[in-house]
Fold these 4 entries.
Entry 1:
Amino acid sequence: MIGEAGPFGFGIGATHQTAIAVTPGIPPYVWLRGLMIEVESGRIMLELGAIGFTIIYLIRIYLALYAFVQIFKLRTRFHRSLAVGSFLYLLGALPGGIVFDVTSGVYYWTFVGLVFVALQLDREALSAAAVARAAAVAQAPAASQPVPARLERAE
């Protein structure tokens, strides 16, 4: 489709099902010059051209790789499992359709958001653990110190 769409494509929405609703008086999809395709990657190529197609798929690959890298950076098991689930969904969505399938798009961006939520929750859990650890260390020497003799007699 690169040869037909060119570097910039036919424009966003050119292959959308309701494009004929905003173009009254023009034969349906005449702007596509007979190029009818149902596969999402082909539709993205027709609408955005080679440049837009490259950008869209680089972002998809980047988000999947980002989720994969976070699996090894997260320290709690729950947050790591969120990242694993998100990575697997994002990896499976690479060849799938998220632009022209509304339900799939909602799932896709939910799993992208889960990666960032897992990162934030992991940071908060680690900082809370560090504060608790610091408080425990600060109280430990005070508890192990002997009580002065003057206080023992008063009790």
Note: The chain has one domain: 2-154.
Entry 2:
Amino acid sequence: MLGEFSEITGCILRYEFPARGPPPPVKITWFDGNKTVPRPEELEEGHKLPDIGAVVIGDKGKIVYGSHGAGGAKLIPDAKMKAYQPPASSIPRSKGHYADWIAAAKGGKPAGSNFDYGVPLTEVALLGNLALRFKGQKLEWDAQAQKIANFADANRFIHPLPRKGWAW
């Protein structure tokens, strides 16, 4: 089967994560396709947002960076970046996805992108895809029960019924 798209489309997904003990609640807005991140007013003339990347908005400022950290993270405006003093390194650096995976497979420490990390990340992405099916409907995910708590119709996509002759 061959599909064809006649236009570029996009989406905006809004996620709200509750507080998890000491870490406070977090809101994430994902822009995709032809939906672009609004230009932060702190970004000076002559600077542009990366084509693919992020703008992180915190209580004390904003950070801009390219996909997977390409181009390095940058505080905006430039004056904040110039005044920034990084802390001493305390997190061991990755030798790369493949090297970390091979070391883990040989009995070393778990890779940085192990299942403990990858499963929840994938869950968030898939829930975003599910939200697109129900435009405008806020979906409340119950991670413990693995279902949408406030909109039962969405759950048919989470645990679909098997085809005739098959069972879970």
Note: The CA atoms of residues 97 and 135 lie 35 Å apart.
Entry 3:
Amino acid sequence: MHDTYCHVDQHKEPENLCRELEAKEIYTIAVTNLPSHYALTLAPLKNFKYVRPALGLHPLLASRHAAELTAFERLSRSAELIGEVGLDFSPAGIKTKELQIQSFRHVLKCLRGRPRFISLHSRRAEDAVLAELRNFSMGPAVFHWFTGSAKSCESALSAGHFFSVNISMLASAKGKSFVEKLPRERVLTESDFPHVRVNGASVGPLEIQRVISALAALWKVPFAEACSQLHRNLQSADAGLFNS
């Protein structure tokens, strides 16, 4: 099982969570919001096989990017996992649109030339994110909690990108309809802990089987078959990083 998008550093007991994930062999990508946050996770996660930190530069923190860009460039030289990065043109982020674009271009410039696992934030900015990926000749990346149009989705699929889905997406008719139309080989799972909540409680990576069960029901296949499909997908998306 895998969780490609989890804010491990926002858990009240992150090291205990990581030990549980390690014991259960749940591949978990611990996304971060800023390079300074990523730097703090390197030592605690150094000896974990299944929990890996990802270098991030969250678009909604654009006002703090100027002080973090140099660190992103330096850390990106060794970081194998990137997330979350991208653009947010929703009401929460539209005021910093131009700053976000500048930062995202800096990110892609730093990453160009070497395959990485990249988790993307693209709320109301899907076409802009796709355009920047094309401009920088970036290979397949992963769209986290995609909410764009069918046309944008088709463009992302044509470019070889993946989509990570969570239990909240699969709990609505609209979300189910979207995921059902995705090629199974382009689907990954995420918890988006602590931001996804069910009955008022956060759903974390230890409950990622709930996402797999929902996908198995949607695909009309046994749980084990869904697990196998998703594991193959992760191997395709991560360029073998979790096997190293």
Note: The first strand starts at residue 2 and ends at 6.
Entry 4:
Amino acid sequence: MERLLLCTAILALAASCRQPEPPSPTADTAAASQVPERDQRALYMLGVSLVRQYAELQMTGEDLRYVQAGMRDALLDEKRVKGSRLDQAKFAELRNRRATAHAAGEKQKARPFLEQAAREPGVVKTESGLLFRSLAEGTGPSPSKTDRVKVHFRGLLMDGSEFARSPQQGPPHEVQLEQVSRCWREGLSRMKVGGKAKLVCASDLTYGDIGLEYKVPGGAATVFELELLEILPGQGTPVPPVP
């Protein structure tokens, strides 16, 4: 288990360089490699996927030196690491401390964005801080917190990049208002069937200091474009990207 954890960490750190493609080895390096070329891409993408699991650690090159040392000893010097165990409490403290520090920086970056969004024409700021702007008024009823609804949606970061959306084809998403974020819950309760709205939300209304995997950093503000299609009775299924 310890070897697996070390391998996971080193792969994650190696991928933190965020190279868009695997490095192109020289002919000499390729010839000396024991890894078949057909496997190199798969292993590289494994590292990319693993680093996303540890994104909140905000690893540096200096961190990589220590993880590499542990990885090397675990693979080549069993005697040196014999009896060693990963201290789960200390590792959790490290992750939490770095995630909190990173989220604080993201919140600082979000302040001017939220202030600017609040000044846009037609924006209503609620008591919670939700910034709500109607894009198209509906004509039907508004949902209550016990309803489930059918929606189309897009999720955007502050720079306008899209991190989530409902499928362009097939049935729309059904969500239970009690199971979604406060951002969505408040926003949908202000809409009527057939309406569209733009929601701008601080992190405490959505993904908090943890964020959404590698898609939304902890502490980041997010923007949602929602279209309320239908209100259904009973329990629903939450949209995966929205906690």
Note: The chain has two domains: 2-86, 109-232.
